[in-house]
Amino acid sequence: MTESSALEAATTFAELDLAPEILLALEDLGYRAPTPIQKQAIPLVLAGRDLLAQAQTGTGKTAAFALPLLQRMKSYANTSTSPARHPVRALVLAPTRELAIQVYESVVGYSKYLSLRSTVVYGGVGMDTQEAQLRAGVEVLVATPGRLLDHAGNRTLALSQVQYLVLDEADRMLDMGFLPDLKRILNLLPRERQTLLFSATFDDPITRLAQSFLKDPLKVEVARRNTAAETVEQLVHRVKEDEKTEALVRVVKARGLAQALVFTRTKISADRLGRQLLKRGLRASVIHGDKAQSERLQALEGFKQGQAQLLVATDIAARGLDIVELPCVINYELPYSPEDYVHRIGRTGRAGAEGVAVSLVAPDEEKLLAGIEHFIHRSLAVTPLPELPGPPAAPARAAAEARRIPGPPGRRRAQPVCALLLPPASPQGPNEPR
Ligand SMILES: Nc1ncnc2c1ncn2[C@@H]1O[C@H](COP(=O)(O)OP(=O)(O)OP(=O)(O)O)[C@@H](O)[C@H]1O
Ligand SMILES: [Mg+2]
């Protein structure tokens, strides 16, 4: 069964025993039927089980944890103005600020008919607004780990009533970079709680580590491990290092791409490539961890709204971000970790839509390519660079539309609330994820 038909041929959300308020919100969002991970995970979360859940990129993992948690918290919904009536009951941790904001936006959409409050805290912006929201009380808190610890240290935040913990992009949250912060956070939470781990990739050491703080967990695996959605066509062009920028421009023009997300390995090469593309007259913007938070959000929002044709990014944008109907991801440089490859290319081909992932591979990247192919258990098609078309290319949106296999009908972009969150420029910079 293809991804899109799997998305369509499911039972209904109503059959999953979700509350009318949640069903109404899903209707507003144009979700007709649960995806495979939603069908599998929702009943288990409702039954109170700890989960280690793996499903391909873009297949609706956010709703798979958020919907049943909202349902479980529904009995606490109230309109009291007393902060004591709104303790943090669910904590969702995400590895990047942009992803935390996006998960929060999803929670807002799913809970719009419930009297449950939610907010998001992340670094790179002032503490005051976040503090005021935390003091007023929220049931659902989405956070990046560093900023969460800052608030906990300032005693603006009590976590003693947390009943539900979610690690989105769980394998990333459990790797060496995040583990110390995560351990500190776990020490602040009640032992008696439900813990949910979601990602498109898990390796064995991470799975073993995860067992240590999960209670009798169930493993949910949709499809084969460590895969992007099958709707992503993957191909490789072998290119000399110093010809990559020309190759990138050729791919964009020959394919008539309205938009593409372009990944580099380092902030320096992202900046350099951004400048080169601008010089060639392409509307490109750049996002990486050394940019001010306001610049990061503006680059991402501008790209989502079609103001930029190309968004050049480091792996800060590899995980979780949902850019509706993005037609193409280009690996200008392959990532060092094969997991990042899966997440990068998973920014396209989401929710049943089709997408293309093109990797420009220089001779000294052959080893990285072999590592990726080993990780995803398949070899990637190597093809020559596409020919530039003679007459002007057909508008890419129309071309993408023609290629698109029918996804979930009535799919609409959730109302963006990100603009409301745009912070004033902050001097605080690179310390992702604080
Ligand atoms: N049941 C559904 N019907 C239609 N669209 C859905 C459904 N569930 C989720 N979506 C949409 O699918 C897109 C991908 O969802 P989501 O971001 O949760 O994927 P994910 O599995 O978390 O991917 P990633 O591994 O990249 O984080 C979103 O735009 C979301 O609104
Ligand atoms: Mg996700």
Characterize the structure shown.
The chain has 434 residues and is an alpha/beta fold. The chain folds into 2 domains: 3-221, Rossmann fold, CATH 3.40.50; 232-382, P-loop containing nucleotide triphosphate hydrolases (Rossmann fold, 3-Layer(aba) Sandwich), CATH 3.40.50. 37% of the residues lie in helices and 15% in strands. The protein has a 7-stranded parallel beta sheet, sandwiched between helices. Strands 10-11-9-12-13-8-14 form a 7-stranded parallel beta sheet, sandwiched between helices. The longest helix has 14 residues, at 97-110. It is globular and about 65 Å long. The chain binds adenosine-5'-triphosphate and magnesium ion.
List the helices and strands and how they pair.
Elements: H1 3-8, H2 20-29, H3 36-46, E1 51-54, H4 61-73, E2 90-93, H5 97-110, E3 118-121, H6 128-136, E4 140-143, H7 145-153, E5 164-168, H8 170-173, H9 179-188, E6 194-199, H10 204-211, E7 218-221, E8 232-238, H11 244-254, E9 260-263, H12 267-279, E10 284-287, H13 293-304, E11 310-313, E12 328-331, H14 338-345, E13 355-361, H15 366-376, E14 381-382, H16 396-403, H17 418-421
Parallel strand pairs: 1-6, 1-7, 2-4, 2-5, 3-4, 5-6, 8-13, 8-14, 9-11, 9-12, 10-11, 12-13
Helix pairs in contact: 3-4, 4-5, 7-9, 14-15
Bound molecules: adenosine-5'-triphosphate (ATP) and magnesium ion (MG).
